Amino acid sequence: MKAVVVFAMALAAGAASLAQEQPDPKLTEVWEPVPPVVTPGEGALPPSDAVVLFDGKSLSQWQSVRGGEARWKVSDGCITVDTGKGDIQTKQGFGSCQLHIEFRCPAKVVGESQGRGNSGIFLQGQYELQVLDSYNNKTYSNGMVGSIYKQHIPLANAARKPGDWQTYDVVYAAPKFKGDGTVLSPAFVTVLHNGVLVLNHVEIKGGTAYRGQPKYAKHPDKAPLRLQDHRNPVGYRNIWIREL
Fold first, then answer.
1. Does 12 map to a domain?
2. N or C: which end of the chain has fewer CB within 10 A?
């Protein structure tokens, strides 16, 4: 009986000692800052703090890269590339951001490889997230839909059929430059294509180049989002962006 009492006393002493060694959980509670309230969008609606870049009605947020008004077609709630009219870009500049954009490659299949449903989304006007009809369409892997053009191959081909609407959800960290123009930190991007992760925090190597290797050139902290006229009537809709 005496041994049992001694054992119980030892357990109690050990528990008390352990309790004394454990830090107060309140020491690791962080109460400030309090994150701002953002109301999520219902269905296709954007969240409450998003900048809506296309409301389905007008191109008032856009302009031609050549100067003047954006001259793409607006009908049935979407923008369609008016081939030969040139790229368009936002009037407002953006840096690090969350971007949602929907696109549709033409239902009528014309051409193959890079000649089929080709367009592009240029983050800060420099770094191209490829838009292409990659549904049963063979091309070079670092130029297919979901790629950072000629830099990163997507993890999967999540393309829908021609004529179907598709989604990109992008988280983009803008590059930072030193005063002399050299890179302090490169850009990074994560992309979900139709809800499928295709680029997982990949490093952007520089501005998009068709020939040769990509290189960085210093640009403003905020620069326009650009959509490419690649002579294919690709459609866009439901475009919104959240500055980070």
1. no
2. N
User: Is a pLDDT exceeding 70 seen at residue 156?
Assistant: yes
DSSP 177-235: E-TTS-EEE--EEEEEETTEEEEEEEEP-SB--SSS--B-----SSEEEEE---SS--E
What sign does the dihedral 103-108-113-115 (CA atoms) show? negative
Residue 46 lies in a domain: no
Distance CA 86, CA 29 (A): 53
Global confidence as pTM: 0.90
List for the chain the helix, strand, coil content (%; round to 5): 10, 35, 55
Q: pLDDT value at position 7? A: 52
H/E element holding 18? helix 2-21
Rounded CA-CA distance 58/192 in Å is 27
**Domain-located, residue 136:** yes
Domain count, the chain: 1
Indicate the helix (H) or strand (E) that contains 9.
helix 2-21
Chain centroid, CA 244 distance in Å: 12
Q: Containing domain of residue 81, as a range?
A: 51-243
* CATH number, residue 134: 2.60.120.560
- pLDDT for 33-90, tens place per residue? 999 999 999 888 899 999 999 999 999 999 999 999 999 999 999 999 999 999 999 9
List pLDDT tens digits, range 213-229. 999 999 999 999 999 99
